[in-house]
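One such shown below:
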Amino acid sequence: MTVTWQASEAAHPARDAARRSMDAVSRGAKDEWLALFADDAIVEDPIGPGPFDESGKGHRGRTAISAFWDASIAMVERFEFVVRDSFACGDEVANVGTITSHLPGGMVIDADGVFTYRVDEAGRITALRAYWEIKRAATTLHKTT
């Protein structure tokens, strides 16, 4: 299993969308993942300037979110998600956990963080924001044996 859920399982629209998002990513289901987003949604992963978002303004709209997938998610051979806690409030959820990315060449990196999802009335994701530190994650980079 590539999504390990150790947090509250209480139904909540944002929590449900987050779980569907992680499941789609773990299976490499790009079209399914994109369908979870509202037309004007934004993805900030990580928040602020970074290797996939030099401006730090996020990826807004399905075309930009699709390009984000191609530049970042598609290059990962396998993802493992571990969600240790989940806090649902209003139309949002904040999940605390670790995303492990298995990269080409047997390299592995862990990103500990807080991952938030906001949804609209229809349960579509309007904002996915990932609070994690690139330098901190880089210290976990290692080659599997």
